[in-house]
Amino acid sequence: MAVLVTGGAGYIGSHTCVELLNAGVDVVIVDNFYNCKKSSIDRIKALTSRDFKWYECDIRDHEGMDAIFKKEKIDSVIHFAGLKAVGESVQKPLEYFDNNVNGTLVLLDVMRNNGCKKIVFSSSATVYGMNNVSPLTEDMQVGGVTNPYGRTKFMIECILQDLYVSDKEWSICLLRYFNPIGAHKSGTMGEDPNGIPNNLMPYITQVAIGKREQLGVFGNDYDTHDGTGVRDYIHVVDLALGHVKAVEKVDGENGLFIYNLGTGKGYSVLDVVKAFEKASGQTIPYQIMPRRAGDIATCYSDPSKALNELGWKAERDIEEMCEDSWRWQSQNPNGYPD
Ligand code: NAD
Ligand code: UD1
Question: Could you give the residue numbers annotated as active site?
């Protein structure tokens, strides 16, 4: 029996596949390689010394997905595949709703037709919207998201909840990620964004490697300890290990489960810059810029539900996140090879 991992060649998916394979779980990857390189598959194999099947297929391809389910013995699914750039989603809402929401509907239909009713879904802290006060807990009201990307996550959460109400044979786990950063300890796998990075850590590492001149810090007048935005950064390997626990959960019992995956600690933009400089020995020049539209001052999790119910807790601290991000960037200045 195997776990089908949609988007398994991407940043979080590839790290999760390594941890699943290391835990003795069989995986089958489905990716359309829209936002990743095929060489990430070789890196997963090299790190685990295990072979596995992978398919180049779009999750919206009903026939193609059905053929994969017919061929492989799929027991459960981890669903990472999606588009994730907030700014781009404002420019291309139809593409985001089609890829993320329609893609999920096709996947769920194929799963149901093939008798597979266990799914772990990549949601985001973005579903908590602008109005909840951190630390964020899973029982807080969600919605009120300000951009199409965030709305796709909220809509998919609603779809999965309605699906569970309609058929209690499903086992569904919604994982709300906070801010994943870091990379595999080997330095052979990490985040490889296309174009100008939108997120803080890949921007910092590209400044450190000399690809960008300086970091723009989006606002220093927030109500935080140094005026810059505070977030809950989580090491991608801790996040990956959370998925191993989530798969065990949906394998073990039916239900609808929701967990925050974060550390519970908040760091400001300038805290991250300082931690990165210490870990890498590089200086990160920065300039204070205006606030970025849609940003909030502070966002961090209460991760205690995942600890109580999954026995999962993030173990890696901000220093380790920065060291590992830098090892990946410095060993792979241009990311994955073509
Ligand atoms: P990523 O872009 O590296 O990985 C997503 C993968 O899905 C890519 O390899 C891409 O090629 C693939 N994909 C996209 N659309 C597809 C489709 N229609 N069919 C098949 N494959 C498709 O992104 P990531 O950072 O690894 O994120 C994984 C998931 O986690 C996404 O759903 C994202 O929205 C969610 N998430 C990410 C973050 C973050 O900060 N990275 C935070 C919260 C939630
Ligand atoms: C962003 C998305 C969120 C998504 C998450 C993970 C927005 C508004 N939100 O969250 O929906 O789930 O990424 O993909 O885009 N910063 C700078 N300079 C930069 C980049 C970022 O100062 O060049 C600051 C931001 O203002 C923020 C912090 O760094 O305070 C973290 O930003 P980022 O990495 O983009 O993550 P989020 O904004 O938390």
Answer: 149
